[in-house]
């Protein structure tokens, strides 16, 4: 017999009568009380992102009521739950079994990100922390589901303490709502954005790398304001407040979406921003849906499949696949071959470049802005992002799609601050430490090289395949390789065997040539061929 079969007799996994609910609450000790988790909904147990997702608690798609399962427990609930402050049933999963579930997944698959929701007992928090120590993942998102809308503390004090002392220090981001933030800080009152900032800083001192305090319950606020503290800066993220009863599960969705974006390679700030926009759009799409008799209904997570309007209006910011064929211009080379910057950019795009960087080391500021504006028109008309090398001021002046900065340029964190969350920031990195810093600074991708010797950039050390691979393995962000790459060696670069190496950035193999279009096509066909074999 499988080890835990006897624990789950048929038909017992949901729909507990009220008496048994109370027993469960008592079993947990302390003042654990089943109830709703309020404005931002709830999720149970850990979920996984990055090639694997488990149970409705783990994804964008959960939470229309009925039964939900995460490794922590099985619960039954519907839209009336929050009125009564009761779930219809909760069935805790034994700690040993949670441990086995975690081992089963973490030992087998390359899990990039784990997201936790409600964790019902100290024991399960311990099991989770031990499992994550044994099988470290790239990022941990902790949604500290512990306080209901009505203010009920759903976690026993001992669970709360375990959360704070064991789980939070392991988290890359923790996402409390106002009441959870208050509970974590001993019940202080949080009423303003300033209070949220102070709370985020105080929770940060427990050890998580980032704290997102969600302001859905902020009194007298016409916007939906969340505050992200990254250890240095408090980012105030403003969105539209959607007036609707269908807010059940927004917190769970937000945290799951953050996890999914992190697994795709986004930085924390980007992931939070995308998740916030996702939740806002989903709420807006679903605001008039009527499902269930209770006061708080579910919302529709699949709105993008159903409504073109939500896709059409979307300015998609950064797609790591755009790094495939990254054309980096060089004014000297273009001058040598008698072509203008706009001719060069048009030719490389027509040849198949997927992103363009203007690297104009000799242009004065006026010339740079003017040529950037002209190139931007060409890029926009082809749907190809245009980045500016080094010069954040030029990027701002012409509203380019972003910048690429190196280790001696403006720090990526400053570039991000100046450009805001919607622009692309790339950073040159030669070491794992630089790659980690780029992620912390809110970059979208890193450029790594020179892979081969190059004459295009003076005094640039060559990393070789080993150096490139080391940086890729350490990087949480997607990587583009650069330095001496051409159609003859691009395949060998792309086949070093790392998932987050997304493409090659090339200067002379495209622009120090007679026909930019032909050279770009040649490189493109190699890369497309490699992508097919890598799939
Ligand atoms: C995609 C990409 N990767 C690396 C670099 C190099 O940037 P940096 O180190 O700042 O050197 P310069 O290009 O400014 O000389 C890049 N430009 N693009
Ligand atoms: C800008 C830069 N950064 C690292 S290597 C390099 C030059 C790449 O040029 P090329 O593709 O001609 O080798
Ligand atoms: Mg630079």
Apparent shape: elongated
Cα(first) to Cα(last) distance is 39 Å
Could you tell me the CATH topology label of the largest domain. Answer: UDP-N-acetylmuramoyl-L-alanine:D-glutamate ligase
Q: What is the top-level CATH class of the largest domain? A: Alpha Beta
Overall pLDDT: 82
- Summed up, the helix count is 21
Runs in which pLDDT lies below 50 for 5 or more consecutive residues are: 1-44, 49-69, 82-86
Supply Rg: 25 Å
Can you give a write-up of this model?
The longest helix is centred in the middle third of the chain and has 19 residues, at 268-286. This protein has 535 residues and is α/β, with parallel strands linked by helices. β14 (402-405), α16 (412-419) and β15 (424-428) form a beta-alpha-beta unit. Residues 1-44, 49-69 and 82-86 have low confidence and may be disordered. The chain has helices at residues 18-27, 81-84, 95-106, 122-134, 157-167, 178-184, 193-204, 250-263, 268-286, 303-306, 308-312, 331-336, 341-351, 365-382, 392-398, 412-419, 432-440, 464-474, 490-494, 508-511, 516-534, and strands at residues 46-49, 66-69, 73-77, 89-92, 113-116, 139-142, 173-174, 210-214, 223-229, 234-240, 325-328, 355-358, 386-389, 402-405, 424-428, 445-449, 479-482, 501-506. 39% of the residues lie in helices and 15% in strands. The protein binds ligand LCLJCK34, 4-methyl-5-hydroxyethylthiazole phosphate and magnesium ion (MG). Magnesium ion (MG) binds next to loops. Ligand LCLJCK34 is lined by residues 326, 328, 357, 359, 389-390, 404-406, 409, 426, 428, 447, 457, 480, 482, 505.
């Amino acid at each position: 017999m499988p080890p835990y079969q006897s624990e789950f007799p048929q038909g017992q996994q949901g729909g507990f009568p009220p008496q048994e609910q109370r027993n469960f609450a008592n079993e947990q000790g302390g003042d654990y009380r089943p109830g709703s988790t309020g404005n931002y909904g709830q999720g149970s147990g850990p979920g996984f992102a990055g090639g694997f997702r488990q149970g409705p608690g783990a994804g964008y798609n959960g939470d229309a009521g009925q039964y939900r399962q995460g490794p922590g427990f099985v619960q039954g609930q519907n839209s009336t739950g929050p009125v009564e402050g009761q779930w219809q049933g909760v069935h805790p999963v034994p700690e040993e079994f949670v441990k086995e579930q975690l081992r089963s997944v973490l030992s087998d698959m390359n899990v990039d990100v784990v997201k936790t929701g409600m964790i019902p007992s100290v024991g399960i928090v311990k099991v989770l922390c031990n499992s994550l120590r044994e099988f470290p993942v790239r990022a941990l998102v902790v949604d500290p589901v512990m306080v209901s809308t009505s203010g009920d503390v759903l976690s026993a004090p001992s669970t709360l303490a375990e959360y704070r002392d064991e789980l939070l220090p392991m988290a890359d981001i923790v996402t409390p709502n106002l009441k959870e933030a208050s509970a974590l800080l001993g019940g202080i009152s949080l009423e303003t954005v300033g209070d949220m900032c102070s709370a985020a800083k105080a929770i940060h001192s427990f050890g998580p790398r980032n704290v997102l305090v969600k302001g859905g319950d902020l009194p007298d606020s016409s916007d939906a304001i969340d505050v992200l503290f990254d250890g240095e800066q408090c980012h105030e993220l403003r969105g539209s407040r959607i007036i609707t009863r269908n807010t059940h599960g927004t917190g769970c969705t937000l945290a799951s979406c953050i996890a999914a974006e992190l697994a795709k390679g986004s930085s924390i700030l980007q992931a939070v921003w995308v998740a916030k926009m996702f939740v806002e759009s989903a709420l807006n799409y679903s605001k008039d849906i009527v499902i269930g008799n209770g006061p708080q209904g579910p919302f529709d997570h699949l709105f993008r499949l159903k409504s073109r309007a939500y896709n059409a209006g979307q300015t998609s910011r950064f797609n790591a696949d755009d790094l495939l064929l990254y054309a980096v211009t060089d004014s000297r080379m273009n001058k040598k071959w008698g072509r203008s910057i706009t001719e060069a950019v048009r030719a490389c795009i027509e040849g198949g470049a997927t992103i363009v960087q203007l690297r104009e080391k000799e242009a004065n500021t006026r010339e740079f802005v003017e040529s950037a504006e002209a190139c931007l028109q060409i890029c926009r008309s082809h749907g190809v992002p245009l980045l500016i090398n080094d010069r954040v001021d030029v990027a701002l002046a012409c509203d380019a799609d972003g910048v690429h900065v190196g280790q001696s340029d403006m720090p990526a964190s400053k570039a991000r601050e100046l450009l805001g969350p919607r622009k692309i920031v790339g950073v040159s990195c030669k070491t794992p430490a630089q790659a980690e810093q780029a992620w912390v600074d809110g970059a979208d991708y890193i450029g790594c090289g020179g892979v081969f010797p190059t004459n295009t950039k003076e005094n640039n050390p060559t990393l070789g395949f080993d150096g490139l691979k080391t940086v890729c393995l350490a990087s949480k962000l997607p990587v583009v390789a650069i330095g001496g790459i051409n159609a003859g060696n691009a395949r060998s670069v792309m086949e070093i065997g790392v998932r987050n190496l997304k493409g090659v950035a090339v200067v002379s193999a495209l622009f120090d040539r007679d026909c930019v279009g032909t050279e770009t096509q040649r490189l493109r066909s190699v890369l497309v061929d490699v992508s097919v074999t890598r799939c």
